[in-house]
Design goal:
The protein has about 220 residues and is α/β, with parallel strands linked by helices. The protein has helices at about 20-25, 65-70, 80-90, 105-120, 130-135, 170-180, 195-200, 210-219; strands at about 5, 30-40, 45, 95-100, 125-130, 145-150, 160-165, 185, 205-210.
């Protein structure tokens, strides 16, 4: 059965990675995806871009701003702890992406591990990045390790349990090759029901979508 994961929450209808986006994804998805950055005072929070400009009423580099400042943005960002509390209370799977390159480098994964140790979550977790070094730093985290791909490449199983390409790259032959190596395939970002049905038919393990309700109803 192919999972449907809400990309940045139910971001087709609600502000991405807001509390509202995640809470409203609960009844229509198998879990949530988030992206992580650190503020200047080393608070771990859910945000995609390096700046506040695109998705808030603020401007500026998130790595140069304190959480006190960022937390006053509209829509209001949430800390990673709040994201996890929503997922844990609803028993939802999570896909957690650490964003690179950024000024803090490996400190991002260290802070993530520290918060996970405090939370001790009992839910299904996957840890991912476009940066292979970040995936390697997370290799001992409790859950799947995912290499995000923008082109078709070979990823050895000892390095990552999962390969996650952009949907246009995927072929049935590639899905079969990945499964034959004992890996899973997650595909992003799937918002077309016909594409979703084709990928699910090929055996893709997880579809990541901005509109999880539409995609889940199409399968």
């Amino acid at each position: 059965m192919t999972r449907v994961i809400a990309h940045r929450g139910y971001s087709a209808k609600y502000p991405e990675m807001s509390r509202e986006a995640y809470v409203n994804a609960i009844p229509v998805s198998d879990g949530f995806e988030c992206d992580l950055h650190l503020t200047s005072d080393l608070k771990l929070f859910c945000w995609h871009d390096d700046t506040m400009d695109r998705t808030s009423n603020m401007t500026g580099d998130v790595h140069e701003m304190t959480w006190e400042t960022i937390s006053k943005a509209t829509p209001q960002p949430i800390l990673f702890k709040e994201f996890m509390e929503i997922a844990m209370s609803a028993s939802k799977d999570v896909l957690i992406e650490t964003k690179h390159p950024q000024k803090f480098k490996g400190l991002l994964e260290k802070r993530l591990k520290a918060e996970l140790d405090q939370l001790n979550p009992k839910i299904d977790m996957s840890f991912m990045s476009f940066d292979p070094r970040a995936v390697w730093r997370m290799r001992n985290f409790p859950g799947r390790k995912v290499q995000l791909l923008e082109k078709k490449v070979y990823v050895p199983k000892f390095f990552a349990d999962v390969v996650a390409p952009y949907w246009k790259l995927v072929t049935k032959e590639w899905v079969d090759q990945v499964h034959a190596r004992g890996q899973e395939m997650y595909v992003w970002t799937v918002n077309d029901p016909e594409v979703a049905k084709r990928l699910a038919g090929w055996g893709v393990d997880t579809l990541i979508s901005d509109n999880p309700e539409l995609i889940a109803n199409s399968l």
